[in-house]
Amino acid sequence: MKILVVGGGGREHAIIRALKKSPLCTEIWCAPGNGGISYDAHCKAIPATDVDTMVAFAKEEAFDYVVVAQDDPLALGMVDALAAVGIPAFGPDKAAARIEASKVFSKDLMKKYGIPTAKYETFDDPAKVMEYIRAEGKYPVVIKADGLALGKGVLICQNEQEAADGVKEIMLDKKFGASGNHVVVEEFLTGPEVSVLSFCDGKTVKPMVSSMDHKRALDHDEGLNTGGMGTVAPNPYYTPAVAERCMKEIFLPTVAAMQAEGCPFKGCLYFGLMLTPDGPKVIEYNCRFGDPETQVVLPLLESDLLTVMQATTNGTLDKTEVKFSDGAAACVILASGGYPLAYEKGKEITGLTAGQLDAADVTVYHAGTAIKDGKLVTNGGRVLGVTATAATLPEALKKAYAASESIHFDKLHKRSDIGARALAAMQ
Ligand code: AMP
Ligand code: GLY
Question: Which pLDDT value is given to residue 149?
Fold first, then answer.
């Protein structure tokens, strides 16, 4: 099969590496891809959001299957557009992608179907938002812009003044664009966070191994929110008892709700959960693989990824085995100094050969790299994800950190405490 993966980050690199293990995969492309991905796949410089050009390219090259890995092309209906020209694709259609693309849609869905989540109200009038927040009088309070805001449209406000400033930023100054026309105001929840990615075919849901993201830029969960500075899998807080409860109270009801709403979900449904004192609750849904969760989840997948993906498209997931190893994985992100704010690009990366390290059980996934004048250089905020697998989490972390020491570029920044919380929870 000739496969196209749409996107160009570490997640896409991890998907490509997993797909290449499939005996069914004979040729693999990535659009737009990146410098490091070009060692593993043919890259084509089409922006992931350019649906028309992407679909025309897919048709011209006669791809057998397309994996739409990124959120915005899914929200724009790339899977629908591919289906219209007869090309099957992995990922939800436009209607089902609303589960991530619209917080109002997902919150209303959870309310209607009794799926546990933070208590909330939605608003389109800035004056009404503040009226509600003042009347509730509970801080911190969480304010979320409705649409896709690159993970940055969530404000946690400690007092009335911060809430008023936040509402102004989102709804009046439109800091996150049109996604600020509607906001969700929700109660602040506490507890460990768990990411559970799952395969869905519209009716059946099969969860993958659990993982833990590290969203803040600096050690001890300080600094700004980022796309993710590192991940570990499995997540020790996600015990078999918690998993059973999540399946019953969250996963199955969500899949049934999407079916009942006439938009069955096919692809990877990501449950962002918080294990609160009142039980597991949904913080957010994503309509795609997480980044950098994928970089620790897929290396532990023992089943054939392409076969499982096709089963989600064909509706045969109930008959398809999805098996993970009992081991552990850790991913340490090497970022450009300054990320998630301004950072420089074009710094030469040393220590890698053809984008990889020669170390057992270690893979370097490329998030933001380019090849310039024959040299590998930085080209994004998150640059590389150094991932190691091992029998246990402490070993995986040790290997990932040791490997990351051999890679250098100017102003490299990484957290030094990825997995620390997970290890503490295992004591
Ligand atoms: P989201 O983009 O919805 O995942 O939110 C980003 C991050 O903000 C989450 O990973 C949580 O750490 C935090 N967050 C979001 N909603 C809440 C909430 N209701 N209570 C506490 N923290 C939250
Ligand atoms: N790592 C969080 C996300 O992919 O949204």
Answer: 58
